[in-house]
Specification:
The chain is an all-alpha fold. Helix content is 69%, strand content 0%. The chain is globular, with a radius of gyration of 18 Å.
Length: 212
Amino acid sequence: MTLHVRHELHLTRKAWHFSMGALMANIYYNGMSRENAFSILTLAFSAIVFLEWFRLNVPQFNDWAIRLWRPFMRTNEIDHVSGTPWYIASAAIVIVVFPKEIALLTMLYLACGDPTSSIIGIKYGSYGPRFKDGKSWIGTLGGVLVCVLIGLFFFRHLSHHLTTWLVLSIGSGISGGAAELLPLDVDDNFSIPLVSGLVTWILAVILGVSIF
């Protein structure tokens, strides 16, 4: 069964990645409480983990699942856990650990910055150097730029304090776009929200920005 591999553009997967993060951020932004959001994501995580375990241990079900989710899956996920449990777990954790504003921002970084970095890296990464793990400088810079722009818009209420606005937005955006480069043995869907959330929170505290 032919599936996409990591170095292919795979736009359907990118669209799914964006849609899932944007939907979770939108629902949480529009009035859902932290407790309800965490409960729903915990249930979703539990269900996905069970389905992943069942899929990887029952070949017939795995074949059916791959046919069903073929537009979104990669070759390496045939016999390995997909990125979805990591995605949902990171959303649940940032909702519990960070203030609502930071949790929302990290969801947007993951939803927008990560697929942008991948698309630009695949299309134009050959024009520049690469990191040891194969990721391209150009792709990472693309992801960082998108995250910085998101940060500038997200913190636009601070624009009358120009230095604070720029430092927080740029520093937070860099952490969102470059978190995937850290030598952490976890899925990017998990590391990006947690790393960017922590960096943003620390910067906000240092700059005296109230986002609680």
